[in-house]
Design a protein that fits this description.
2 helices, mainly alpha
C-alpha cells in the first residue's frame, strides 16, 4: 500500500463531497425532482444524505490512517 499524505486525503474527502453534491443538485434540477411528489423528494434527499455519509466516513477513515502513518514515519508515535 502506498503512503498517502493527510493533505491529499483531506482534498480527496472535500472533492468527494463536492462531486456528490454537484451530481445530486444536477439530478434535482435537471431530473425534475423538484416537481416530483413529496415522497419522491424525501427518498431523493435520503439517498443523497446516505451517499454523502458514506463518502465522508470513508474519507475520514482514510484521513485518520494517513495522519497516523505520517506521525509514525516522523517517530512521534
Amino acid at each position: 500500500m502506498s503512503e498517502r499524505s493527510p493533505r491529499g486525503e483531506l482534498l480527496r474527502l472535500v472533492l468527494g463531497v463536492l462531486v456528490i453534491d454537484v451530481l445530486a443538485i444536477g439530478a434535482y434540477t435537471f431530473g425534475g425532482v423538484g416537481n416530483a411528489s413529496p415522497r419522491t423528494r424525501i427518498v431523493f434527499a435520503a439517498i443523497w444524505t446516505v451517499a454523502t455519509l458514506v463518502v465522508v466516513l470513508i474519507g475520514l477513515r482514510r484521513l485518520r490512517e494517513a495522519r497516523l502513518s505520517a506521525l509514525r514515519q516522523h517517530g512521534r508515535r
